[in-house]
Write a structure and sequence with these properties.
One of its GO terms (biological process) is phosphoenolpyruvate-dependent sugar phosphotransferase system. This protein is of the alpha/beta class. The protein is built from six helices and four strands.
Length: 143
């Protein structure tokens, strides 16, 4: 099975997971866990290990993390390495909702290798845009 693993600081990863469930329906292949305030690295690793228990050596994993080099992402990759899954894993930082939806759609479409990576990166980048507000003076009074 190909899994999507969401990891973050705070409640971002479970929140992202919740929104994906709402928009795309609950899926067995989406896993999420976050490092909340006051939780140390050891406790985070222990709890994340339990989340990763369903993964087998035959599985593939797409990891979306909030910040490159952050404890949630680095610990997730270390635990995946200990399970022998690092060679079956692609990881990204800077996760956003369009990236996560794009990753799940790419998984559903059976993409792999460079096509998978390119698709996920493009969705994440294209999901970040400036919204140009062009208001007339009269419009500002309506706000």
């Amino acid at each position: 099975m190909k899994y999507l693993l969401l990891v973050s600081h705070g409640t971002f990863a479970p929140g992202l997971h919740s929104v994906m469930d709402m928009l795309m329906g609950p899926r067995e292949n989406i896993l999420s866990y976050s490092m909340e305030d006051g939780v140390g690295a050891a406790e985070y690793r222990e709890n994340l290990s339990k989340v990763l228990e369903p993964l087998t050596a035959d599985d593939e994993v797409v990891v979306l993390g909030d910040i490159i080099g952050g404890s949630p992402l680095t610990n997730a990759l270390d635990l995946l390495a200990k399970k022998g899954l690092l060679s079956h894993t692609v990881a990204f930082s800077g996760a956003n909702l369009p990236m996560a939806i794009g990753a799940l759609m790419a998984i559903d479409d059976g993409l792999s290798g460079e096509a998978l990576v390119s698709s996920i990166l493009n969705e994440g980048k294209n999901g970040v845009n400036q919204i140009v507000l062009a208001l007339e003076d009269d419009d500002e009074e309506d706000l």
